[in-house]
Write a structure and sequence with these properties.
This protein is an alpha/beta fold and 315 residues long. It folds into two domains: 7-145 and 271-311, Ribonuclease Z/Hydroxyacylglutathione hydrolase-like (Metallo-beta-lactamase, Chain A); 151-266, 3-Layer(aba) Sandwich (Rossmann fold), CATH 3.40.50. It has helices spanning 53-63, 151-155, 174-185, 198-206, 219-222, 235-240, 274-284, 297-303, and strands at residues 7-10, 13-16, 21-23, 31-33, 46-51, 68-73, 80-82, 85-91, 99-105, 108-112, 134-139, 164-168, 190-193, 215-216, 229-233, 247-252, 264-266, 288-294, 309-311. It has a seven-stranded mixed sheet, covered by helices on one side.
């Protein structure tokens, strides 16, 4: 029997009362099960952290001594127990080390997705599917009007111009994916990477997920027109270069708002779109769906009680 309050939201995040742990807590807690290393899912300062090896490496790089006190490294598809709840990490396909968290208690399976994607990505473990009684899914783009384009077609837009490109992207996950896509599909481009991205690339390489060919860049190279450079920079640097000359400005994201005021639109997302969520539901075959990290209203309207849907939050 599904326990309706097996997972509940409180001020610290998504809490499993039975196991006395949090999934991706929003503030430091005693027991934290971390799906992946993005800052909105992996806060510093937890006492006991359960995560994959790559997630641990990234958290320790970013947070240093404040990363957390005790890390338990959990392999994919190997189960472990926390206070009687059986937990298994399953690849989520979002970024390196990202995991869905399968929770089993009294014969019922609850699958927490974290962030996930179905699109191919050579820089992280591909998503795997597992059936569950309850699917707890992100709904970042849970809207029938949102359908992500083919990432190869999007990155090939860089082939339409010989100008240098100032390309904004998040440093973790997106940057490595872009390096790979550009290396494969825009081989004439020379990728120059911001210093904030380089240590993360090293972790990817340590786990044998090689982004591709790149080198560090400096500002002098930005002033050299017509070299087929792509300057890959994090958001703050991208915003600070709003007056940059002799470059085409672009920001790789699934969000329309981040495409505004740029010279080129590149829609590449590391989240599921509407069709991907429906495909995920088809694979998991849940009896109930619980939604968070977005708004599940349209998903609830779509299923019209064919599958019970509980919206845990609308933010």
């Amino acid at each position: 029997m599904i326990i309706s309050d097996f997972l509940v939201l409180n001020d610290y995040g998504l809490y499993c009362r039975t196991g006395d742990f949090y999934l991706d807590p929003k503030a430091p807690v005693f027991n934290a099960v971390i799906s992946h290393a993005h800052g909105d899912h992996a806060v510093p300062g937890n006492e006991n952290i359960y995560c994959t090896g790559a997630t641990s490496a990234i958290m320790n790089l970013r947070y240093k001594r404040n990363a957390g006190n005790n890390f338990t490294i959990c392999e994919f598809n190997h189960s472990f127990l926390i206070n009687g709840v059986e937990i298994t990490f399953i690849p989520a396909g979002h970024i390196l080390g990202s995991a869905q968290v399968l929770l089993q208690y009294k014969g019922i399976k609850y699958l927490y997705t974290g962030d996930y994607k179905l699109q191919a990505d050579e820089t992280c473990e591909p998503i795997e599917f597992s059936e569950a009684d309850v699917l707890i899914t992100e709904t970042t783009f849970a809207d029938p009007d949102v359908q992500h384009p083919d990432p190869v077609s999007e990155i090939e837009k860089l082939n339409l111009s010989e100008h240098n490109v100032l390309l904004g992207a998040y440093s973790l996950g997106k940057a490595q994916r872009l390096i790979n896509l550009i290396s494969v599909h825009c081989p004439q481009r020379k990728i120059l990477v911001h210093h904030a991205i380089l240590p993360l690339n090293k972790i990817y390489e340590n786990y044998n997920y090689l982004p591709g060919k790149y080198e560090p860049y400096n500002r002098k190279l930005m002033k050299t027109p017509g070299q087929n450079y792509v300057y890959l920079v994090p958001p703050m640097t991208f915003d600070s270069y709003f007056r940059a000359k002799n470059v085409v400005r672009a920001f790789a994201s699934g969000w329309k708002r981040l495409q505004q005021n740029n010279d080129l639109e590149i829609y590449i997302s590391d989240h599921v779109d509407w069709n991907d969520i429906l495909a995920m539901i088809s694979e998991v075959k849940p009896k109930e769906i619980w939604t968070l990290h977005g708004d599940g209203t349209k998903l609830k309207e779509y299923f019209n009680n064919q599958i019970p849907i509980k919206i845990l939050n609308k933010c």
